[in-house]
Specification:
The chain is α+β, with helices and mostly antiparallel strands and 521 residues long. It contains 17 helices and 13 strands.
Length: 521
């Protein structure tokens, strides 16, 4: 249950200066598959007019050459992040010709693994390493799974928050250590309460049968081409997607930064028998970076990651060791098929207020049993979250999702009111009220609406999403053009990114083998 610790801490902040909670930095990363005009995975190269996927700061690729990733800078206001994301979409569509962006998290009519091209980043050592890493993911988990797309939300509390919070708690810790400790408290609570994000924003209750063509899944069919979970919220975050069983043996402590770094580093250094069977360098070609439980830190799939911006060539764990946690990355948001940009301001506002709640709420350490409970709650919500009979586990006892969600949302609402007082508006409160309405009426959740559309239109997941994708392309063609200044920014970044890639390639002075040995050494 929510504790008095939250009330005490929040009241102390509100009494002193509620404005220190407002204006945290927010950025969005959004993945989208490139598809041809008929809805099939694009087999074309990453468009050269979008710049270098290796060095463009706004438009890159993820696993596949056909999986675009859009990255906004971090902004203090959600409208700025939303506008920048819309501008990236508009710019990208202008360079895609007849191709489209697939507007759902679960992929289009997907080919077998051999037909899914790996992302390519040029001839430099770092570029080749990125491709090898992706080849390894394909061998380990299958390429189809890697075509699942989502939204990542990056957030950091305002710099003004930390000295006041430290004073309220009477801490004598070093600033970096204090910040890291409380960001990890946020991370633990997000793991405890993150099922709520799947319920409220999950938008992938159905998928094309082609995604599981080689696997017999115990899922009902909705027509000849669609599989679905009747009460599902997010197949993307279920064991079909990024919570797959291959990583179930990897347990990373979230109880202190040193333990987190230790466990993550150990997973990168511990051989895994199944991956040793794949081989590392076979017939002169790298199949994976190594045969360890994780090739690199990014392979560890989690709904939330503690992060620090790394310096050039610096590993994520080294960056955390250097300066502590700087921000958190939320990874459990599905693409919303009803939003042309895949996400909207109400989602961002709610997540921001929810993360502040996770920071201020009591956050005891997670033992192995309690960590398993968080995993179970996520997995079950992903597949059954809207079932009236569904029960979460809270400290080993069953609790109705609506009951627990309502308790949490009352506290998130208090934070939203605080944020709105600073802005002189009602936008954060309105966002939380919308989520309270979804808890009261599961049929209005994004996942329920997707299934209702499939039933009403008597069409497949593929046909529905292709129609929506065409509609979103038309939307960006019809709205007012972005500012000339913004367009020039994108054109300049595309052009300069190509030059940067060429400079990196020209500066390589050691072999790939030596580069990898140095990186992991």
């Amino acid at each position: 249950m929510t504790g008095k610790g939250f009330e005490s801490r929040f009241s102390a902040i509100a009494a002193r200066d509620c404005s220190v909670l407002a204006g945290g930095r927010k950025g969005v990363e959004k993945e989208s598959l490139r598809i041809d005009a008929d809805g099939y995975l694009a087999q074309t190269d990453h468009p050269v007019t979008l710049g270098s996927a290796l060095t463009n700061g706004f438009i890159t690729t993820d696993f596949s050459e056909a999986l675009l990733e859009f990255i906004t800078p971090a902004f203090a206001n959600t409208w700025e992040a939303q506008q920048f994301l819309c501008d990236i979409h508009q710019f990208t569509y202008s360079e895609l010709g007849d191709e489209l962006l697939w507007t759902a998290s679960m992929p289009c009519r997907i080919p077998p693994d051999s037909g899914i091209p790996l992302a390519r980043y040029g001839t430099s050592n770092v570029g080749r390493m990125k491709t090898i890493y992706r080849r390894g993911l394909g061998y380990r988990y299958g390429r189809q799974m890697q075509t699942i797309a989502g939204i990542h939300f990056n957030y950091s509390l305002p710099v003004e928050f930390w000295p006041l919070y430290k004073e309220i708690l009477g801490s004598t810790q070093h600033d970096d250590a204090f910040r890291s400790e409380h960001y990890l408290g946020l991370v633990r609570n997000f793991r405890r309460f993150g099922w709520l994000v799947l319920y409220l924003f999950g938008c992938s209750p159905a998928m094309c049968k082609s995604f599981s063509a080689d696997t017999a899944l115990d899922m009902p069919a909705l027509g000849a081409e669609t599989l679905y979970e009747p009460f599902g919220t997010s197949l993307r975050m279920s064991d079909l997607g990024y919570s797959n069983q291959n990583q179930s043996k990897i347990n990373i402590s979230l109880n202190c930064l040193d333990a987190y770094i230790r466990d993550l580093s150990a997973a990168i250094e511990t051989p895994e028998a199944d991956y040793e069977k794949i081989g590392v360098k076979v017939d002169g070609e790298y199949r994976q970076l190594n045969a360890n439980r994780l090739q690199i830190e990014n392979e560890y799939y989690s709904s939330i990651r503690p992060k620090r911006v790394a310096m050039s060539g610096e590993r994520p764990t080294a960056a955390l060791r250097r300066g502590g946690i700087e921000y958190v990355e939320i990874r459990s948001l599905d693409i919303n098929v009803d939003d042309p940009a895949g996400v909207n301001q109400n989602t961002m506002r709610f997540i921001e207020a929810f993360l502040i709640y996770c920071m201020l709420e009591d956050s005891p350490s997670l033992c192995s049993d309690s960590l398993d409970e968080t995993k179970l709650n996520q997995a079950m919500t992903a597949k059954q979250g809207r079932d009236p009979g569904f029960r979460l586990q809270r400290d080993g006892r069953p609790v109705a999702l609506g009951v627990w969600a309502s308790e949490i949302l009352e506290n998130v609402l208090a934070i939203a009111e605080c944020l709105d007082r600073h802005d002189g508006a009602d936008s954060y409160v309105d966002a939380v009220r919308m989520m309270q309405a979804l808890v009261a009426n599961p049929d209005e959740t994004p996942s329920a609406r997707v299934l209702q559309k499939l039933r009403d239109e008597k069409c497949s997941f593929f046909d529905l999403t292709l129609e929506l994708s065409r509609g979103h392309r038309d939307y960006f063609a019809a709205i007012a053009p972005m500012s000339d200044e913004r367009r020039q920014e994108f054109l300049r970044e595309a052009s300069e990114s190509i030059v940067r890639q060429q400079q990196i390639e020209a500066s390589d002075s050691i072999s790939l083998d030596e580069y990898l040995a140095t990186y992991f050494g």
